[in-house]
Amino acid sequence: MILLQNAKELIQQGGKVVVKKIVRSKTTTERNRATLAAYLRTPRSDMKMSKLPTKKLIRLYKTVGLLMEKMMKYRLRTKLDRIIARKTGVSVRKRINIKLPFDSRILKRGVRETAEDLVGTIIQDKPMVDFVKTRIRVLWLRNCKVAKLIHNQKKYANEEEHPWSCKGRELPKHAGHILTRFSELEIPDFLRNSRNVTKSGKASDIRIISRAIVDAVKHLRSKKEPKMEPDRIYSRQQARRTTWIDEEVRIWRKQFNGLVLSPIDMNQGDTAVICPIVYRHGFGKTFAWNSNYEQVGTLDTEEKILKRSKEDFLKSGLMSIGK
């Protein structure tokens, strides 16, 4: 008896070939599924599975994804992950997600290759290295919108008194108080729409990219630093920049210090410029001084409320739930 894959050379040489019986052998996936089924039926078989080579365990882990039942997949993945982690010290369920603020100058492929090189220096087992590399992802983080950088209406949404900031400002006024909007002023086109997304000024810093890679592989318990090569990480194409950097927006916004900048038209992304005295009067008339509303508790700031809620959350021990 000879396998068909080994008979090709003999057939090419010519001669008479007699096929008596063809026996279908199981594929690797079928054999792995049978191994997993036996593993579920046999209790306390972790010791037997731990004796398998890492390459075989990784193949079994991949085969789990072909199963249909979610609970069975979860049980097998957690058990195999525990066995592999005990054997190699690396968890295969953990993804390596490299999170970076979006920047068109950064090449995802270069960042991924840099992370792969770092993983290759941390893990010595070749099959494990190859599999962990497939778990690497480069994710873009959403940059700040103009509204997040310039709008400050929440700071003034209370009954605290603020000084009159209209003196010396050449802005449209109503009854001696500033009351206008960006669409009526000479504002840069990019800042007219508060929904526009800015560009991160620190995203292209090679130290930020290096730190993101280190944070993504910290579960591998290594203090090694990636070897950063700018030619591989950054694009050589110089695109025409029309987007403002977030720091530029913060600097430009300082000319309106002391005034309330609030969204007024979400469709157009327009922004209202209001004197804090007028804004406080409108806020109090609508909410705080309105007899139709009943005050519950104290008028604390958002920061104080979130801080108190966090303290109550930690004090209740809810962090331990789900671990």
Descriptive report:
With 323 residues, the chain is an alpha+beta fold. The protein folds into three domains: 64 residues; 82 residues; 102 residues, no CATH class. The chain is built from 15 helices and six strands. The strands form two sheets. The protein has a four-stranded antiparallel beta sheet. Strands 1-2 form a two-stranded parallel ribbon. Strand 5 and strand 6 form a beta hairpin. Helix 2 packs across helix 4. The chain is elongated. 18% of the residues are buried.
Strand arrangement in the largest pleated sheet = 3-4-6-5
Give a short account of the largest sheet. Answer: 4 strands, antiparallel
Strand content: 5-15%
Order of secondary-structure elements? HHHHHEHHEHHEEHHHHEEHH
Q: Tally the helices.
A: 15
The N- and C-terminal alpha carbons lie at a distance of 55 Å
Question: What Rg, in angstroms, do the CA atoms define?
Answer: 31 Å
Low-confidence stretches: none
Q: Into which percent range does the helicity of residues fall?
A: 40-55%
Overall mean confidence score, pLDDT: 87
| Total count of strands | 6
What is the structural class? alpha+beta
Principal-axes shape call: elongated
Count of the separate structural domains: 3
